């Protein structure tokens, strides 16, 4: 479980996040929407510890692990997909090829391909970013504008994937300015003028 309690984030005296509070329970599928530049990426960076929050706190359960895709994913550009995902996994865990392959197959990537990441399209890079956020069985998953560059078939596959993750009891938070059809959100929030507000509709 993740608890975000009155989180605040400022840069050089300018408040980007004024007040963000929410609780993430197992199996939650949460949508955070808001205009471009409203602070969605900043919120995720504060939750993951990339940024040090200037106020409030984030509390993660002892057995919980965060997987995140924030902004444009970065990779080893002259290595292939398997090398990249294996490198990322081995920072904390062993690389599970077969488990990772199931996500690649669902999203239409070839884990055995020798193609360099530098040759990947925006959509292919986005899929690889999504995979690295879930391939280590992370149970708190933060996805920032995950539909960027995805075609219609890939959007359907992505929606099915996140719905299945939630059914497994893994919690997914998607921050985006658009709606991906078919995702069964159970909580909706709006981030506007630095304040996160729950939308009951």
From TrEMBL:
Residue ranges of every copy of the ABC transporter domain listed in the record: 2-201
The UniProt record lists the keyword Transport: yes
Origin superkingdom: Bacteria
MF (Gene Ontology): ATP binding
SMART domains linked: AAA (SM00382)
Key words, A-Z: ATP-binding, Nucleotide-binding, Transport
Transport found in the keyword field: yes
PANTHER family: ABC TRANSPORTER ATP-BINDING PROTEIN ALBC-RELATED
UniProt name for this protein: ABC transporter ATP-binding protein
Organism field: Lactobacillus nasalidis
Species lineage: Bacteria, Bacillati, Bacillota, Bacilli, Lactobacillales
């Amino acid at each position: 479980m993740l608890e975000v309690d009155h989180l605040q984030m400022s840069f050089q005296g300018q408040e980007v996040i004024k007040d963000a509070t929410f609780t993430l329970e197992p199996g939650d599928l949460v949508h955070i929407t808001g205009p471009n530049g409203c602070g969605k990426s900043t919120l995720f960076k504060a939750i993951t510890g990339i940024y040090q929050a200037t106020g409030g706190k984030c509390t993660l359960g002892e057995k919980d692990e965060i997987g995140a895709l924030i902004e444009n994913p970065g990779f080893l550009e002259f290595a292939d997909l398997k090398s990249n995902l294996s490198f990322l996994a081995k920072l904390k865990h062993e690389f599970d090829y077969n488990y990772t392959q199931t996500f690649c197959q669902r999203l239409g990537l070839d884990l055995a391909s020798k193609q360099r990441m530098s040759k990947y399209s925006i959509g292919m890079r986005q899929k690889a970013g999504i995979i690295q956020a879930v391939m280590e069985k992370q149970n708190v998953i933060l996805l920032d504008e995950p539909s960027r560059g995805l075609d219609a078939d890939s959007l359907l596959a992505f929606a099915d994937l996140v719905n299945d993750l939630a059914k497994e009891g893994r919690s997914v938070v998607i921050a985006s300015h658009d709606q991906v059809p078919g995702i069964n959100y159970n909580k909706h929030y709006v981030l506007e003028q630095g304040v996160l507000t729950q939308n009951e509709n």
